[in-house]
Structure formats: C-alpha cells, structure tokens
Amino acid sequence: MAKWGMVIDLDKCTGCQACTTACAMENNRLPGENWQDVLFYHEGTYPNVKLMWFPRPCMHCENPSCVSVCPTKATYKDPDGGFVLMDYNKCIGCKYCQVACPYGVRFYVDEKAVVQPDIRGVFPSETGRQWDPPYKGPQDDPSRGIGIQPHGVVSKCTFCYHKVSKAPKGVADLDEDIPELKEYVPACVRVCAPKARFFGDLDQPNSNVNKMIADKRGVRLKDETGNKPQVYYLSGGATASVPSLRSMSDSDKG
Amino acid sequence: MTSVTVSNKEISGKQLGIMLLALIGLLIAGGMAVNNLLVEGHAAYNTDNLGLFWGFPIVIYDYFLLTSTGLAMVASMALIFGGEEYRPIIRRALWLALAGLLGGVAVLMMELGHPLRALWAIPFSFAFSSPLYWKVMAVSFYVISLLILQVRMLKADWRMQDLRINAMVTLVLALGVTAIAGVVYGSQSFRPFWASGDIPVAFIFESLLGGLAFVFFFTYLAYAFNPAAVPESVKRLFNDRLANLLALAIFIHLLFVLARMSSGLYGNAEGLQVWQTLATSPLFFAEIIIGLLLPLVLLMYPGTRTSPWAQILASLLVMNALLISRYEYIIGGQLVPLFKGSWAPELLSYAPSPTEWLLLLVAIFLSNAVNAFGEVTLRLGREG
Ligand code: SF4
Ligand code: SF4
User: Fold this and answer.
1) Homologous superfamily of B2-377 in CATH?
2) What is d(CA B266, CA A39) in angstroms, rounded to the nearest whole number?
3) Which terminus has fewer CB within 10 Å in chain A: N or C?
C-alpha cells in the first residue's frame, strides 16, 4: 500500500498561485476558500520590507489531530494511500477538527462569504450544496469529500484522491512530465510552472520524493505537534536538518 | 402555619409568572434567532474561517453545561457527605441542573451544521479517540442519572441515605463531563492559551463555583427575592456553610485565573500574546474586580455576609464573571490565526453578532421556563 506524500521546494516556488487556482478549479472551491493557498508574509516596514511566501496544502498527516478529535469519524485516514478524507454524510459541522488542525487547512464555509459579492447567491444550489457553479468537476463522492461542498459540513484538500487513487499500482512517483501518468497527478502539482511540487510514494525508498527529502533535508512543518505531515518542504540542502522531536512511529521503523 | 401556606401560594403564583414571562421571552428570542438562521444560515454568526471557529454559541453551551454539572456536584456531594441541613437545596439544584443543561444543548443544536445527524452519528461512531465523543456519551448518562435521582425524590419522604449510590454515580458523571470538557481544550497542545494539564481541574472548580452561585440566586428567586419568605433552614445553611463554600470557590477560581494570566504574560509561545491584550481589557478587569473580588468581600465581610441582598448580588456577579471567563478562554485560544499569512491580522477580532446574543437569551429563557415549571409542579422547595 502506498503512502502518498508531497515535496515542495521552497527555493523554486515563485508564489504565482497557479496551484491555488488549479485546486479551486478542480474542486469547485468558493472564492477565497482555498484548500491550497500560498501565504504571503512581510517583515519590516517600508522601504525596508521583505516579502516572503509559503505554499500550504493540507499536510495529510500521518498522525492527524483532525481525525483523532472527530466525534463521528467523518474525517478519517484512508489506510490505502494515507489520504486524510472527509465523509460529508457523517460530518455534523461541530468544527472540532478545524480547531484541532495546527495548519489551518479545514473549511466550514456556511458563514459570511470571504469574497464579496457572495457567489452563492449568483449560482444557488437546489441540492443542499454550497453553490451550483456553471462548470462542475465530473467527480462527486461525498463519502470522500469530493465534489461541491454541502451545507453544514467541513471540507478539506483530498490530495486529489479522485486522480491519485486511479494511478497504476506500485508506481513510485506521479510526475506530470511522464505522459502516461500525468492524469493521476494532483492538480496543484501538475500546474506548478517552476516545478516546485513533487508527488510520490513515501513508502518506496527509491521514490524521487524520498530521495529529495534525504538529499535536501526535507522538513515537516510544525513537527513538534506530533502530526507528522506527509508534506515535506525543501529549502536548500546546505543547512543543518531540523530533527524531529518525536519518537519514531512504526512506519518509520519499517 | 397558615401564613406559610399563604406565602407558598403566593410564591407559586410568582413562579407561574416567571414561567410565562420566560416562555414569552423564549418565543420572541427563539423566533428571531430561528428566523435569522433560516434567512442567513450560519452567516448570522460572526465566526469565520480565518481562525475563529468556535464563537459565542459554544461559549454559551459550555457555560450552561458546566453550570449544570456544578449544580449536580453541589447536590450530589450534599447527598453523599452533607447532612440533613443541605436537604432544602438538593432537589432544586438537581432540577436546575437539568434546566440549565437543556438551555445549553438547545444553543448547541442551533450552532451545529447538522444537529439531527449528531444524534445518531456521535453515539454510533465509537470514536474513542475523540474527547467530544466521550463528552456526549458522558452527558447522556449524566442526564439519565439526574432524572433517576429526581424521580426518586418525588416522594415526600425520600431519605438521603437511600440515594447515596445514585448520588455517587451522578457525582462521578458530573465530574467526568466537566473534566472531559476541559480536555477538549486542554489537549490542544499547539494552542498554548488553552493547553494545560490542569485545565480539567480548573473547569471542575469553575463548575463548582457556578453551581454554588446558581443555588444562591435561584433559591432566592424561588422565594421571589423576598427574604422574609425564605425558610429558616435555608437561611441557616446559606449564612454559614454555603457562604463559606462560595467564598472558597471564588478564591480558588481566582487563583486559577491569575496563575494562568501570570504564566501567559511571561510566556513566549505563539498564542500567549493574547494575554497582553486580554489582561489590559476592561472586560477582564470587570471580571476580576467586580465579578470575583467584590463578591468575595461581600461574603467575607461580617456586615454583609448574612445579608440576603449581598448574597443575591454576590451570586449574580459571580454568574456574570463566569460567563466572561468562559468567553475569554474559548475565544482567546483562537485569536491568533494559524497559517493565514499577511492578509490576516496578528490577532483576530471577534464580537458576537445579534443572532449570537439572541442565543444567550434563548438559553436563559428556556432554562428559566423549565426551572419555574419545576418550582410550580414539583414544589422544589418543600422540605420533604
Ligand atoms: S493538516 Fe490539518 S486537516 Fe490536514 S491531515 Fe493534518 S491535521 Fe488534518
Ligand atoms: S466538523 Fe465534521 S469532520 Fe470536523 S470534527 Fe466535527 S464531525 Fe468531524
């Protein structure tokens, strides 16, 4: 069984937001409610300002706090692939998972629209979904949080389950440059122009993602939380690596 | 004897009046809130996706829930460890525990995305890793044990020793619900404003304080705030043991709040900066000075300690301080947005929306209606 993971090379990311846009299109996200986002930060005051950016999807944690706090098991870890998914039919909208996710990547969108005017009023849904956009992705699987978000539930990035889960068994990396694999590549990875994003099986020692994590000392965001993200960031191989503060999990031990 | 009977009738009449007023209030506030929710959905609330996920409705729910468990703790401890002198407050506290819980749960139902689904999805999920799962299960058993106790006390000649086992179960469940409610927040290690191993204990003391304050206030309310109508047995209890206990509970709660504030102000972890804002806010000062210190003085100072009006005022102030305290804790833990970039402010700002305020009224009116119904039909104040 695969354990899919993503590697994001911060030295290559230009902050162009193509990934954010592709994700929004692929998953019919409401404007501003971005499962995948590039966050911009600034330091200092004008004219000495430094602008930085940081691409941030759901980390599909190995040990996800969102899953452990959910009182209905509506959010769950798929053992086949390691996706953290949502079952819209079980979610009660208590928002505990939002509170418990250290990365701020879960979305309850019944509140006031982030971007005005509220597009939901322009394309209202008759079927209990948030909206009915003119273009809809063909995939709809509420038990995996795929398709347009219904009312009263939390949603999150699926690692493009609807694509990745159809990839040929045993493949180590899903690379958009390999023609026969490109349809299985997550939308954000596929569109990344400077090729800052990579997607592959963390359980295969020879996968490209594993090699990059080893060679460039990939780090996981907020590793001290114990969530063990399956998304790794690279920021140059010359620096010392950031050690994990956690003991090894069974999967680490092999 | 005759005068007491007359006064009981009068009191019953006043309780009927309270019930009617509360029902009218409930209809108006509930109607407006439901209307707003039907028109706007959850956009009627001021919560958001930037980081403020749990707003005032959750504050109200937890406040009423923990007040309920506090009342149950007071009543069951009185049944287990107390003597006959506690008898006059036990039934009332237990009924009030049910009434308060109902008010809180009603608000929770209006906050959840899918309240009806919650009724089956939680119990049948067997989500053992979730504190909320255990909280809901514990609350369900807690309600059953409260009802059993209440039913067993319907007979005028109930004896305290016959109810001890029941009371122990209720006490354990009330402690369990309160402690788990603490774990819901205390376990969020990446939110240092919330996270602490002692939060469940702090919640237990806070609940106890709420329970005691509510016993004072609602007992006086049961006698229409007419001190002359309050039976001697109740006065004796209030002026002696319960006044001491209330003062002690205020003191312990104050210690918890001030200890958390000091660690928060000196701490450096991301999230603790909320204390810098909080500790200088007028609301915090009102909570500490007017809501906790003033009642403490009123209950310690010999000149006011036995005055019914001072006791009513002290309990009312404590009830408000606890609501503020719950608000500050729940909201404060979410004010630092996580990974939202420069577009988000350093500290989120939040104030309850009009609909969220209406939910507070819903909880107050509903609990008061149920409580007054109990006062009228169950004669909660009878000594037997
Ligand atoms: S990043 Fe958040 S939402 Fe995603 S798996 Fe981890 S805890 Fe869950
Ligand atoms: S909002 Fe839904 S997915 Fe999140 S914890 Fe509650 S029930 Fe689970």
Assistant:
1) Formate dehydrogenase/DMSO reductase domain (1.20.1630.10)
2) 29
3) C
